[in-house]
């Protein structure tokens, strides 16, 4: 198996990725904290955030493994796509039916999308830095 050499990400990109992820997560959580919804609704939106983050990272890692000719089953790739689609679908359905102002719905949607994008970028940076030998990692990310 041959592995591609990854370009080392710039410190600016690494920092911007981490900042975007932290801002997205904190904005989403601050919105939940200040929301006037029941605790079970807040739990639903928190679970969707956690599920979406895991699904996005898992899909990114899986697609990168495939690109580097590492063995990944088609079943797992399909499961990753299904999980990410389910997370986005559950957020969409939840916001569509929520008794929130349109601006609040947009806030949750945008902070969610920002978080998913940024967490994928952070995962890519972690893996690229590990491949370049500049990040201490117990196992390959």
Would you mind describing this structure in some detail?
With 141 residues, the protein is mainly alpha-helical. The protein has one domain (13-131). The protein is built from 4 helices and no strands. It has helices spanning 11-34, 39-67, 74-97, 102-131. α2 packs parallel to α4. The longest helix is centred in the C-terminal third of the chain and has 30 residues, at 102-131. The two termini are 18 Å apart. Keywords: Membrane, Transmembrane, Transmembrane helix.
Write the layout of secondary structure elements.
Elements: H1 11-34, H2 39-67, H3 74-97, H4 102-131
Domain YiaAB two helix: 13-65, 76-128
Keywords: Membrane, Transmembrane, Transmembrane helix
Protein name: Inner membrane protein YiaA
Features:
single chain; 141 residues; mainly alpha; flat
> Over the alpha carbons, how many angstroms does the gyration radius reach?
17 Å
Q: What would you call the shape?
A: flat
Helix-strand pattern: HHHH
Strand % is: under 5%
| Average of the residue pLDDT scores | 88
Keywords: Membrane, Transmembrane, Transmembrane helix
Transmembrane segments: 12-31, 43-63, 75-99, 105-122
Domain YiaAB two helix: 13-65, 76-128
Protein name: Inner membrane protein YiaA
Compact summary:
By secondary structure, the chain is mostly helical. Helix content is 76%, strand content 0%.
């Amino acid at each position: 198996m041959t592995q591609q050499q990854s370009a080392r990400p710039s410190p600016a990109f690494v920092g911007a990725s981490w900042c975007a992820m932290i801002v997205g997560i904190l904005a989403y959580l601050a919105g939940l904290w200040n929301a006037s919804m029941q605790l079970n609704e807040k739990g639903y939106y928190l679970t969707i955030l956690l599920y979406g983050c895991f699904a996005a990272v898992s899909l990114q890692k899986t697609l990168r493994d495939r690109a580097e000719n590492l063995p990944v089953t088609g079943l797992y790739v399909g499961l990753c796509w299904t999980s990410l689609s389910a997370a986005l679908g559950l957020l969409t359905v939840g916001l569509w039916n929520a008794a929130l102002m349109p601006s609040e719905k947009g806030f949750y949607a945008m902070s969610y999308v920002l978080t998913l994008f940024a967490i994928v970028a952070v995962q890519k940076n972690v893996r690229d830095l590990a491949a370049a030998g500049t990040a201490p990692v117990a196992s390959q990310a």
